[in-house]
Amino acid sequence: MKLLVTGGAGYIGGVVTHALVEAGHQVVVLDDLSTGFAQTIPVGVEFHRLPVHQVAQVLTPDAAFDGVLHFAAKIEVAESVARPDLYWDINVGGTMALLTAIRAAGVPRVIFSSTGSMYDPTSVVPLAGGGFSKLGEDAEVRPLNPYAATKLAVDLMLAGECEAFGLGATSLRYFNASGAVGGLGERHTPESHLIPIVLQVAGGQREQLMMYGDDYPTPDGTCVRDYIHVADLATAHLLALGAIAPGRHEIYNLGNGDGYSVKQVIDAAREVTGHPIPVKLAPRRPGDPAATVAASDKARRELGWRPARPALLDIVADAWAFHQSIG
Ligand SMILES: NC(=O)c1ccc[n+]([C@@H]2O[C@H](COP(=O)([O-])OP(=O)(O)OC[C@H]3O[C@@H](n4cnc5c(N)ncnc54)[C@H](O)[C@@H]3O)[C@@H](O)[C@H]2O)c1
Ligand SMILES: O=c1ccn([C@@H]2O[C@H](COP(=O)(O)OP(=O)(O)O[C@H]3O[C@H](CO)[C@@H](O)[C@H](O)[C@H]3O)[C@@H](O)[C@H]2O)c(=O)[nH]1
């Protein structure tokens, strides 16, 4: 297929772009490089440095795209609380521009990077035998921050496009993307995500980890997340691409179904890196849900998706190898 990837110079979009090229697809990347890196884009892939609002310059009827994978977005919870305007403009306004171009060009399929962080976190509770109750696609949504609200808004927009105009769309609600594939890993400037920051502390680039709150209603008081390997997310995109049907909007939750607390992630990083990782307790970060853990039964059943690298230690080890490779 001929595919447009928005945000293909970013962390997840970059890994997926490489996987698409390896699978034999013709890929065109659009990215404004606001948080991405041009070096991430595979050699030979056509690249347009443009904001998503201007996507119609690339996504023309003549270009005859078979599909779009839409990663380009602002992605930080805390920033979204401070600058909601930016999040509505880029995540929702940018997607409106994309959908207008898609309609005008008659592109038949779209995959959207949605989030597992939009569900009501009070639905996730520790179970007596261990583990947590999990969030399926029909769990109640209750976005706690503008970032999650914009992702929900786009999911709703896509449902309407499919019904009214016959588009085929899939919203992949990733839980916490992590790990690395060779030279492709997570790096943002400034970094805000837990695993890369913990590894910066292990690598001596930061003195300590600020741990945002230990008074959440979770077993050890720190927030619980479902960490999913970025390579497993890439596999899900390839499977979803083959399953999209005209006029249908499908949603899939993508996670391993295992919840790990911030303290457990720090312990895993201590084990993988052999470094002590000093921690300082800080106030809660605004907008953080206490716990998010995925039920991915639908993706397993309908797409045949099977995460290949579910263990937290493997995920952290791959991220650590990447971290060391970039110095
Ligand atoms: N990282 C996660 O854990 C996670 C979880 C759920 C959903 N997501 C979603 O997955 C997608 C990719 O996330 P990521 O972690 O790879 O982030 P990232 O910041 O590494 O990638 C985003 C890419 O989009 C580009 N971009 C941003 N704004 C743009 C704009 N206005 N026009 C054109 N390009 C623009 C950036 O330059 C970057 O290359 C996002 O939509 C994010 O919301 C991420
Ligand atoms: O220095 C830090 C950084 C993070 N955390 C905590 O670690 C947890 C995970 O935080 P982070 O890695 O920033 O991820 P999330 O806020 O859970 O959000 C990520 O995961 C979501 C899906 O669950 C995506 O939608 C978002 O784009 C992505 O940023 C949270 O409890 C944070 O409070 C700390 O305690 N200290």
Features:
binds uridine-5'-diphosphate-glucose; two-stranded parallel sheet; single chain; 9 helices; 327 residues; NAD; 7-stranded parallel β-sheet; binds nicotinamide-adenine-dinucleotide; alpha/beta; NAD(P)-bd_dom_sf; Rossmann fold
General description of the model:
Pfam families: Epimerase. This is UDP-glucose 4-epimerase. This protein is of the alpha/beta class. It has one domain (2-326): 3-Layer(aba) Sandwich (Rossmann fold), CATH 3.40.50. The chain contains nine helices and 13 strands. The chain has helices at 11-22, 77-82, 84-105, 146-165, 194-202, 230-243, 262-273, 297-303, 312-325; strands spanning 2-6, 26-31, 46-49, 67-70, 109-115, 168-174, 176-178, 209-212, 224-225, 227-229, 249-254, 260-261, 279-282. Strand 1 (2-6), helix 1 and strand 2 form a beta-alpha-beta unit. It is globular. It binds nicotinamide-adenine-dinucleotide (NAD) and uridine-5'-diphosphate-glucose. Uridine-5'-diphosphate-glucose binds next to helix 5 and strand 8.
CATH superfamily: NAD(P)-binding Rossmann-like Domain
Q: Tell me, what's the shape?
A: globular
Q: Point out poorly predicted stretches.
A: none
* Helix content percent band: 25-40%
According to DSSP, the number of beta strands is 13
Q: Output mean pLDDT.
A: 96
Structural class computed from helices and strand pairing: alpha/beta
Order of helices and strands: EHEEEHHEHEEHEEEHEEHEHH
Q: Could you tell me the radius of gyration in angstroms?
A: 19 Å
- Helical element count? 9
How far the N terminus sits from the C terminus, by CA atoms, comes to: 37 Å
At CATH level 3, the topology is Rossmann fold
How can the largest sheet be summarized? 7 strands, parallel
Query: What amount of the residues lies in strands?
Result: 15-25%
The CATH architecture category equals: 3-Layer(aba) Sandwich
GO molecular function, one term: UDP-glucose 4-epimerase activity
Subunit structure: Homodimer.
Cofactor: NAD(+)
EC number: 5.1.3.2
